[in-house]
Amino acid sequence: MRVVMFGYQTWGHRTLQALLESEHDVVLVVTHPKSDHAYEKIWDDSVADLAAEHGVPVLLRNRPDDEELMTRLKEADPDLIVANNWRTWIPPRIFTLPRHGTLNIHDSLLPAYAGFSPIIWALINGEKEVGVTAHMMNEELDAGDIVVQRAVPVGPTDTATDLFHRTVDLIGPIVAEALDLIASGRTDFTPQDRSKASFFHKRSIEDSRIDWTWPAEDIERLVRAQSDPYPNAFTYYKGERVRVLKASVSKGVYGGTPGRVFIREGDGVVIVAGAEARRGRSHGLVIERVRTDDGTELPAAEYFRTMGGYLTAQP
């Protein structure tokens, strides 16, 4: 097949690598210009550079909405478009152009977690599995029939970084299997159950702010979901921002006001957490390692030298 690829960052890079290793002919690559957005500077292997290394023509676009792009697509005469981590809507006149349509690769177990940052949202929400789905594109974002889907389990200490590496390693095999199925003439793919669909927005720095009225279990997952190199979960202590790098749920049950720097437990310091803490019904969050705004990383017991005071959502 003649294949055009739309993609960006490491997800797109892995997809293009799989296409280049296949028996199919990559005739054009469309990718985004580099961005200074915090989340787009992470996992930023260059799709454009990989295409150029293999002599594949490249177009840089923020949105696929100009006539020059349409002309180049028609000249490429694709049998299939393959997309992964394309950041804007692809209109019907593009995704229906190829003979076999457009295959999209999405890093969630669709129909759940359509949209953006699915691994981070899934980890925050305590999902037991994450994964990757290859589906045919239609008018609704991430809603087309499923061609191939694979899952990996989420362990009790897994970070978003761990899950990124496990899911990105699925891209190559999934792309290869999906291409084989499409090239064979298969079209009887699995419709999504739209009653189970959910759609999530892009992450921003605001989404990393800790709310101490959350249960400690939820905050602990937020910390793991905002692992390096993602912007870390953060709070304020004595007016200064502090990033929480490692935390766990306390063994003991502690009562009081959420956010109170309370007591040492094990290798960390317990922060009172949860709306039920005032009734003495909540476990606290044991902060074990922090990073200050100047980049200094240190054990929480060294940072919180005395007990008392409060962690807050604002300075």
| Uncertain ranges | none
- Beta-strand portion reads 25-35%
Biggest pleated sheet: 7 strands, mixed
Shape, principal axes of CA atoms: elongated
Plain-language structure description:
This protein is α/β, with parallel strands linked by helices and 315 residues long. Helices cover 24% and strands 28% of the residues. The strands form three sheets. It has a seven-stranded mixed β-sheet with strand order 3-2-1-4-5-7-8, sandwiched between helices. Strands 10, 11, 12, 13, 14, 15 and 16 form a seven-stranded antiparallel β-sheet that branches. β1 (2-7), α1 (9-21) and β2 form a beta-alpha-beta unit. α1 (9-21) packs across α7 (171-183) and α5 (118-124) runs antiparallel to α8 (216-225). The longest helix is centred in the N-terminal third of the chain and has 13 residues, at 9-21. It is elongated, with a radius of gyration of 23 Å. 41% of the residues are buried. The mean pLDDT is 97.
